[in-house]
């Protein structure tokens, strides 16, 4: 393929360049995720991210937007979401106000005026389509599995065409089609048509070493020792049969809490004071308590 | 490295020619050179042989990806191929095995990813895409490229349902025999009768109670809240004056129905009919269906097609452990962990079809039932053994689970399935626990 003048292509010629850029933005991506993001940007193709809660699915989209230096438009999906909340809606109260205002001035307000972009409330999908560039925006469809199947189909069609028709205004066509990242928690099977269009990536839990590295980046005030101890504690917790094994988010919360309390190492006392930052379930706390706070802090290991 | 071994005989070069995806221009293959195309096509073929369907669009995507990421190292090729070709986490073990077999012969790529459960060698993976055992002309492209495959296992209690016509005749013929069949336990039916009953069971209407949805619909005056959007729209038509306030009310929608069916050995006499119940619920009431024995398998997708015979055959192929032992607590745990607490069981009507015989400790069963209880709207336990004379729920697992159930019904015969339907449709808790010990 000929080298295109695309600014994204010149900025990120290969996966390593993207990894380095993500790294600069304090997002540490392993080779799998970096490749996935690279392909999402360069093919371009929607990226479907799945993984346990707290492995950084949403963060990945945010980091990608930061790296590209473009806005991130996030649509949190839920049951019953419709196009008025996802795409656009007319600002009816404001239109009414406009009519009243015109009346009080004894002037007329005509239809075209009333349905001008001024009165349009832009929702994330439209915002992402209208993004003027020069680089495409990042559109995050969070927890797409929570939306109805009809909404999924509607979104899919919109993304395929990168255009939307507003009856009163005409067709809005994206100059720079957004880079789409979808996340799913698998509460229902996504439609084949959607998965077929997407690059699929399952994000695994990072190992202890990488966890420590990520924590250090995200909580700059923390000490190296605390980060390493905590990461080891997290992997100990993951080895147990917990209902909600802690993820990266919990590791960060935990270190942030410990740092805020002025603790620079993980010992029994520190663990006792901060159960709630890392275990979010009563049964889990009971199970780990039985094992002992000292064990979690790594005391027996020496 | 990989390039030396990457070209077994029979590489389907011609497949690459008809790549047409939005992402790859049609002149792409020529510019990419035949090597990348061959590589993509060959890998896809190997995956297809191992049971992962890979469409031409995905092959084209891999070819495009390999242009962007020249596969100079193994890891680059691995990730490009995995991202482009795989659509689901469940396919990963098979993919890893196939990739390893092609590109390094023996090295297991899962090791490098720190995956604890190493994938099995190619061919030994039982959970591949099941092929419906039909001879009809296939419509999809995947069917056309489907490789030969050993015959699919049939469901335990004789899953070879005849085509529609026979089935309809069966139902007609049943009109006379229905009276008797109505109260006969599923366990006592002849295979032929079981088939007839299954056909009827499929059409039992299961309808869950409703709940308030987030969506709204127009409402008459004086109920509901003012719908500003519609009011203003109407006012614009009338020259800007608000003459009437239009109102809206939250729509009501059905609660989700989730069925967990025990398919262990002790439940075998009932499995055939219960599966039909599941299939009817999935295809007609958008229910979610799972079966469990030693492990939990989600069957919603397999059962969602309309043809019952095909659906059951696909279900049989998808669940690996028919008629095994029962790990009740473990299966419940797997359900809550992987599906329930992520949203599937929230506010749902849960139906567990099991005799409660389990290898797990009763207190473990109680613990998992407690977790499920906190998520679900209602839990209905269907135990076909309840109808037996002198039955008391003394089996460890059953006794432990019972305190968490809102309804406890037998569902052992066609007549008693009405009770199941009633329990599913009930608005509030505690309708028929310990209602009838005998029929």
Explain what the structure shows:
Chain A has 302 residues and is α/β, with parallel strands linked by helices. Chain A has helices at residues 7-11, 15-24, 31-42, 57-68, 83-86, 92-104, 111-114, 124-130, 149-161, 192-197, 208-218, 224-239, 248-260, 268-273, 275-278, 282-291, 293-297, and strands spanning 47-51, 72-76, 88-90, 120-122, 138-142, 163-166, 170-173, 179-184, 199-203. In chain A, strand 6 and strand 7 (170-173) form a beta hairpin. Chain A is elongated. By secondary structure, chain B is of the alpha/beta class. Helix content of chain B is 44%, strand content 11%. Chain B is built from 19 helices and 9 strands. Chain B has helices spanning 2-5, 13-17, 28-32, 34-49, 56-68, 74-85, 92-103, 109-112, 141-144, 164-182, 191-201, 228-237, 268-285, 300-303, 308-318, 328-338, 362-375, 396-401, 414-425, and strands at 210-219, 225-226, 247-254, 257-262, 288-292, 296-298, 349-353, 378-382, 407-409. In chain B, helix 13 (268-285) links the parallel strand 4 (257-262) and strand 5. Classes of the chains: A alpha/beta (302), B alpha/beta (439). At the A-B interface, helix 3, helix 6 and strand 9 of A face helix 3, helix 5, helix 6, strand 1 and helix 12 of B.
Write a compact overview of the structure shown.
The complex is a heterodimer of chains A (about 300) and B (about 450). With about 300 residues, chain A is α/β, with parallel strands linked by helices.
Through-space gap between termini of chain B:
71 Å
Strand segment count of chain B: 9
Q: Given the C-alpha coordinates, what overall shape of chain B results?
A: flat
**Sheet with most strands: strand arrangement of chain A:** 2-5-8-1-9
**Strand segment tally of chain A:** 9
Q: How can the largest sheet of chain A be summarized?
A: 5 strands, parallel
Number of helices of chain A: 17
């Amino acid at each position: 393929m000929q080298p295109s003048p695309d600014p994204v292509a010149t900025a990120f010629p290969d996966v390593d360049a993207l990894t380095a850029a993500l790294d600069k933005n304090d997002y540490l991506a392993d080779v799998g995720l970096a490749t996935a993001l690279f392909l999402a940007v360069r093919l371009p193709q929607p990226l479907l991210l799945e993984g346990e809660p707290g492995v950084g699915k949403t963060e990945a989209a945010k980091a990608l937007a930061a790296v590209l230096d473009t806005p991130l438009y996030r649509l949190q999906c839920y049951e019953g979401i419709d196009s008025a909340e996802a795409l656009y809606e007319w600002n009816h109260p404001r239109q009414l106000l406009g009519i009243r205002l015109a009346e009080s001035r004894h002037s007329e307000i005509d239809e075209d005026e009333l349905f001008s972009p001024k009165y349009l409330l832009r929702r994330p999908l439209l915002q992402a389509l209208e993004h003027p560039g020069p680089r495409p925006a990042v559109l995050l469809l969070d927890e797409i599995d929570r939306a109805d199947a009809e909404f999924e189909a509607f979104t899919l069609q919109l993304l395929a065409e990168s255009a939307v028709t507003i009856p009163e205004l005409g067709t809005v066509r994206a100059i720079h089609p957004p880079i789409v990242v979808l996340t799913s928690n698998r509460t229902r099977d996504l439609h084949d048509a959607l998965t077929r269009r997407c690059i699929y990536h399952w994000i695994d839990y990072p190992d202890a070493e990488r966890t420590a590295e990520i924590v250090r980046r995200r909580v700059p005030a923390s000490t190296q020792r605390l980060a390493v101890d905590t990461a080891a504690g997290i992997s100990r917790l993951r080895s147990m049969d917990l209902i909600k094994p802690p993820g990266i988010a919990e590791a960060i919360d935990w270190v942030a809490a410990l740092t805020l309390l002025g603790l620079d190492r993980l010992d029994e006392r520190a663990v006792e004071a901060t159960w709630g930052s890392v275990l979010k379930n009563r049964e889990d706390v009971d199970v780990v308590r039985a094992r002992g706070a000292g064990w979690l802090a790594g005391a027996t290991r020496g | 490295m990989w390039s030396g071994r990457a070209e077994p005989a029979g590489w389907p070069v011609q497949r690459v020619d008809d790549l047409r995806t939005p992402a790859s221009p049609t002149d792409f293959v020529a510019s990419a050179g035949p090597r990348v195309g061959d590589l993509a096509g060959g890998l896809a073929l190997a995956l297809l042989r191992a049971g992962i369907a890979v469409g031409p669009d995905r092959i084209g995507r891999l070819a495009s990806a390999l242009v962007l990421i020249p596969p100079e190292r193994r890891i680059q090729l691995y990730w490009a191929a995995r991202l482009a070709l795989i659509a689901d986490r469940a396919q990963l073990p098979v993919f890893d095995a196939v990739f390893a077999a092609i590109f390094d012969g023996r090295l297991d790529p899962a090791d490098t990813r720190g995956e604890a459960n190493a994938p099995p060698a190619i061919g030994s993976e039982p959970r591949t895409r099941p092929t419906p055992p039909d001879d009809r002309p296939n419509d999809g492209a995947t069917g056309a490229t489907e490789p030969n495959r050993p015959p699919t296992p049939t469901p335990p209690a004789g899953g070879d349902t005849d085509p529609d016509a026979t089935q309809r005749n069966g139902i007609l013929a049943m009109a006379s025999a229905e009276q008797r069949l109505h109260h006969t336990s599923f366990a006592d039916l002849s295979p032929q009768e079981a088939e007839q009953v299954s056909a009827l069971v499929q059409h039992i209407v299961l309808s869950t109670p409703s709940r308030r949805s987030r969506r709204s619909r127009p409402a008459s005056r004086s109920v509901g809240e003012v719908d500003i959007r519609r009011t203003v729209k109407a006012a614009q038509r009338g020259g800007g004056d608000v003459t009437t306030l239009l109102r809206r009310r939250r729509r009501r929608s059905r609660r989700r129905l989730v069925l967990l069916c025990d398919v262990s050995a002790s439940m075998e006499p009932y499995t055939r009919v219960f599966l039909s119940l599941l299939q009817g619920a999935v295809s007609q009431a958008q229910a979610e269906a799972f079966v469990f024995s030693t492990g939990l398998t989600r069957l919603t997708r397999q059962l969602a097609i309309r043809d019952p015979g095909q659906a059951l055959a696909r279900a049989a192929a998808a669940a690996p452990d028919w008629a095994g032992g029962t790990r009740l607590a473990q299966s419940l745990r797997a359900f809550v962990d992987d599906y329930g607490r992520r949203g599937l069981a929230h506010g749902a009507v849960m139906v567990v079809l099991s005799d409660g015989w389990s290898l797990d400790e009763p207190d473990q069963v109680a613990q998992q039932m407690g977790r499920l209880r906190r998520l679900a709207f209602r839990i209905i336990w269907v135990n076909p053994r309840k109808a037996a004379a002198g039955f008391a729920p003394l089996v460890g697992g059953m006794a432990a689970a019972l305190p968490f159930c809102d309804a406890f019904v037998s569902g052992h015969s066609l007549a008693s399935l009405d009770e199941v339907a009633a329990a599913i449709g009930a608005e509030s808790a505690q309708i028929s626990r310990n209602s009838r010990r005998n029929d």
